[in-house]
Amino acid sequence: MNLKQHLEHRISQALAELSGQSDCVALVAHSKSPQFGDYQANGVMALARKLGKNPRELGQQLAQHLKLDDVADKVEVAGPGFINVFIKPEFLSDSLNQLDRARLVAPVAKPQTVVIDYSSPNLAKEMHVGHLRGTIIGDAIARTLEFLGHKLIRQNHFGDWGTQFGMLITHMRELPFYSEGKFKAELSDLEGFYRAAKERFDTDEKFARLARENVVHLQAEHPGYIADWKKFIDISIEHCQELYQRLGITLSEHDIRPESFYNSRLPQVIELLEQNNLLTESNGAKCVFLDEFRTKEGEPLPVIVEKTGGGFLYATTDLAAIRFRCQELHAERVLYVVDARQSLHFQQVFRVAQLAGFAGTNCKLEHLSYGTMMGKDGKPFKTRSGGTVKLVDLCSEGVERALALVTGKNPGLDAAALQNIAEVVGIAAIKYADLSKNRNSDYIFDWDSMLSFEGNTAPYLLYAYARIRSIFRRAGLDPQASYMIKVEAAEEKALALKLLQFTEAVESLAEECLPNQLCLYLYELSGLFMKFYECCPVLKAEPGVQQSRLGLCQLTAITLKQGLELLGIATLEQM
Ligand code: ARG
Q1: Which of 97, 101, 272, 575 is deepest in the core (most CB within 10 A)?
Q2: Binding site membership of 117 for ligand 1 (Cβ less than 6 Å)
Q3: Cα 118 to ligand 1 centroid, rounded to whole Å
Q4: CA dihedral 122, 123, 125, 128 (to 10 degrees)
């Protein structure tokens, strides 16, 4: 139990004893300012209202009745009945000294099987910025849940099926280099290849007809067509894996479960929907009508699962995927880190899956949506010429900019060392800029602010970490040794409390899947460290105090490193 939960439990219990009511909630939160203590319980007012009592009096009684001496040195009633709790320095010292430094946060008591669907780009084209957010945010969530001991099953739901692939293999087959097997080189620019195929499809009628025929062959899984399709897919997957590697994304080839995987399972989905009386024919298409989904005008809004004349849809595949994830992978929680624009789609398929019994009540389906990446002009992020920005180019630009920056700061370092630092800083800046914003809103992509050494940015945090490491290095001290912490000064106390709250930050990320909260925590932690380091001399302090302060430095470094690792960001010993 983390400190917040511990207080919630104890204060709720005291409220129950005092009032004779069984369902009391203490409503513990972090205090907004130090004068109101460290934690605040806000549940007294509601309870007083319910009992018809004066809230301030009830608060006073509670403060008397509460026995928090082991944790707090002061419990105060403020305003109309807020309970302010001031945590004792001794409690902080003891708790920090007892922390397991290898992981800081205990694994969960009841691990769950969690399926997480993220990144999932379409393989017809090259990965572009539209996939960046989901990939980065999804990876941080996956890493955190896994760290807490849950069984994570990553599913990269690649879009590798559908009419576009008929067009692509038609183009592929007609190129002179096709027979010579040289197309791998040609496909190094997937984007250009796609554009060329599309251009022909739109202008050349004969080509378009052939492409449509090839889709039919492909969907009937005729071996020659499947072989060509597979050649294309393999190259496209290679592109993605290279990017994942550069970005430090934990998705591997084992996590690939693309749309095509579900192809053979789609007829059964239709059959089961039929058996559950969920299907309605509408203009020859098979649809599920749900009462709760209507257009703005109040017209029924169907989920189409089979087109007129045959052929399945995106929704049909997702229904098959839910069934697979719940029934064969035995997921207790399925997370979809997908663009907010697909939110209606997920509401619909989740509802159909529940009605059809594909997802039982023991399987929770959650769409973790995210907003669009915008340029500085407030419009969706594009290249200068208005094209989509390729992720490879974005990474390279980030690293180049970081190189200019770190070269300016460290003129003494050799080229290889600088390049190494730039790679870490550039990638970290791109990832952190995204992670540190609430995923629900759109966000503005801006090189200057993400590469700044001030504010809630990757360079600021990486610098804070490297600075602590250099304290140990310069003094020739062992950063691994065990240092006894004894919290005394106010700045020490503030830092110690924050360090103890790391568990709360990680656990709340696992629950709400909002990485920006962990970012904010790390940023605040670094700020408190800087304040502590300014006010409390470390190496110049007398031996006992020095020990304790080194302990706080050490723990801050470990916490920063662990926190950044959960976000998928590498640290540097020197920068
Ligand atoms: N391939 C889709 C796209 O790029 C995202 C797939 C998300 N996952 C899913 N199960 N539908 O828009």
Answers
A1: 575
A2: yes
A3: 8
A4: 60
Q: How far is the CA of 159 from the centre of ligand 1 (A)?
A: 7
Model confidence at 238: pLDDT above 80 = yes
Of the listed ranges 97-101, 383-387, 401-405, 453-457, the one predicted with least confidence: 383-387
Kindly report the protein residue whose alpha carbon is nearest to atom 11 of ligand 1: 318
CB 337 less than 6 A from any atom of ligand 1: no
Residue 321 beta carbon below 6 angstroms from any ligand 1 atom? yes
Q: Among 126, 342, 343, which is best to mutate for testing ligand 1, by the most ligand atoms less than 8 A from CB? A: 342
Cα(269)–Cα(262) distance, integer angstroms: 10
120: left (phi over 0), alpha (psi -120 to 50) or beta: left
- Specify the ligand 1 atom closest to the Cα of 342: 12
Q: Is 122 in the pocket of ligand 1 (CB under 6 A)?
A: yes
Which parts of 16-129 are beta strand (E)?
28-30, 39-41, 72-78, 82-87, 113-117
**Average pLDDT rounded to a whole number, residues 322-349:** 97
| Alpha carbon of 338 to ligand 1 centroid (Å) | 7
Is 259 touching ligand 1 by the criterion CB < 6 Å? no
Residue 57 is predicted with a pLDDT of 94
From the CA of 8, how far away is ligand 1's center (Å)? 40
**Distance in Å, CA 258 to ligand 1 centroid:** 10
CA-wise closest residue to 256 among 240, 277, 272? 240
Q: How high is the pLDDT of residue 178?
A: 67
3-state secondary structure 512-545: HCCHHHHHHHHHHHHHHHHHHHHHCCCCCCCHHH
Reported as a pLDDT band with limits 50, 70 and 90, residue 180 is low
First-to-last CA distance in the chain? 37
Q: Give percent of the chain with pLDDT exceeding 70.
A: 99
Q: Over 90: is that where the pLDDT of 380 sits?
A: no
* pLDDT grade for 298, boundaries at 50, 70 and 90: confident
Token pair 């009511």 is found at 21
Domain ranges of the chain: 3-87, 163-249
Cβ of 160 less than 6 Å from ligand 1: no
Least confident of 9-18, 184-193, 504-513: 184-193
CB count within 10 Å of CB 496 equals 28
Residue 128: per-residue pLDDT: 81
pLDDT at 277: 96
